[in-house]
TrEMBL record:
<protein>
    <submittedName>
        <fullName>DNA-binding NarL/FixJ family response regulator</fullName>
    </submittedName>
</protein>
<feature type="domain" description="HTH luxR-type">
    <location>
        <begin position="151"/>
        <end position="216"/>
    </location>
</feature>
<dbReference type="InterPro" id="IPR011006">
    <property type="entry name" value="CheY-like_superfamily"/>
</dbReference>
<dbReference type="InterPro" id="IPR000792">
    <property type="entry name" value="Tscrpt_reg_LuxR_C"/>
</dbReference>
<dbReference type="Pfam" id="PF00072">
    <property type="entry name" value="Response_reg"/>
</dbReference>
<keyword id="KW-0597">Phosphoprotein</keyword>
<feature type="domain" description="Response regulatory">
    <location>
        <begin position="4"/>
        <end position="122"/>
    </location>
</feature>
<keyword id="KW-0804">Transcription</keyword>
<dbReference type="Pfam" id="PF00196">
    <property type="entry name" value="GerE"/>
</dbReference>
<keyword id="KW-0805">Transcription regulation</keyword>
<dbReference type="InterPro" id="IPR058245">
    <property type="entry name" value="NreC/VraR/RcsB-like_REC"/>
</dbReference>
<dbReference type="GO" id="GO:0003677">
    <property type="term" value="F:DNA binding"/>
</dbReference>
<dbReference type="InterPro" id="IPR039420">
    <property type="entry name" value="WalR-like"/>
</dbReference>
<feature type="modified residue" description="4-aspartylphosphate">
    <location>
        <position position="55"/>
    </location>
</feature>
<keyword id="KW-0238">DNA-binding</keyword>
<dbReference type="InterPro" id="IPR001789">
    <property type="entry name" value="Sig_transdc_resp-reg_receiver"/>
</dbReference>
<dbReference type="InterPro" id="IPR016032">
    <property type="entry name" value="Sig_transdc_resp-reg_C-effctor"/>
</dbReference>
Length: 223
């Protein structure tokens, strides 16, 4: 079964370019397009895509609010959101991640990265490039708590090793890098990550990274 993709961007030329790239792949199918967040909501309901490629800055409803309504609490649909950003200009990326986005991609990323990112998100993984998430969290540190707030009670449900894994996820390390750092197998790391997500009620690694910053477990700029 092909991965069903909805393209959401207010620039028709960009949507056309994305469509050409994705339709060249046998396992990807572009099922629709939208020029703003409101259209995206209608298209998601009508077309039931697997992945929504979502721009942030759009008229009528931006990508953050659209993401929140597509993936927020109580939403059990299959659609996952992959946010598009220009990085240097979009100060709302962290808010999109909080809203439920499964990851994000730079608009000038190579075609093969776009394709792979969609496949990764559709498979239930969170981010194509974890290091970019850390850069964004550091860049927008003013959006996040200082770390002086009390540690949430939910954090105490984690084992010592799970806390270690969460810190490394927040630093932007991949499963392979975490495995090497802790001298365990990648399978073990995946198990720990799964336990962390379940215990904290988080959707994916992206939200786990944001949680680690918001809870004060990891502070922006810390190594």
């Amino acid at each position: 079964m092909a991965i069903r993709v909805l393209l959401v961007d207010d620039q028709p030329l960009l949507r056309t370019g994305f469509r050409m790239i994705l339709e060249a792949e046998q396992d990807l199918a572009v099922v629709g397009e939208a020029g703003d967040g409101l259209q995206a909501l209608d298209q998601v309901r009508a077309l039931q895509p697997d992945v929504v490629l979502m721009d942030i800055r759009m008229p009528r409803m931006d990508g953050v609010e659209a993401t929140r309504q597509i993936t927020g609490p109580g939403r059990d649909g299959p659609a996952k959101v992959l946010v598009l950003t220009t990085f240097d200009l979009d100060e709302y990326v962290v808010e999109a991640l909080r809203a439920g986005a499964s990851g994000f991609l730079l608009k000038d990323a190579p075609a093969n990265e776009l394709v792979q990112a969609i496949r990764v998100v559709a498979a239930g993984e969170a981010m194509l490039a974890p290091s970019i998430t850390r850069r964004l969290l550091d860049k927008y540190a003013t959006h996040l708590p200082s770390g002086d707030e009390p540690v949430p009670d939910t954090l105490h449900t984690l084992t010592e090793r799970e806390v270690e894994v969460l810190k490394l996820v927040a630093r932007g390390l991949s499963n392979a890098e975490i495995a090497a750092d802790l001298f365990v197998s990648e399978t073990t790391v995946k198990t720990h990550v799964g336990h962390v997500l379940t215990k904290l009620g988080l959707r994916d690694r992206v939200q786990a990274a944001v949680y680690a910053y918001e809870s004060g477990l990891v502070r922006p700029g810390a190594q």
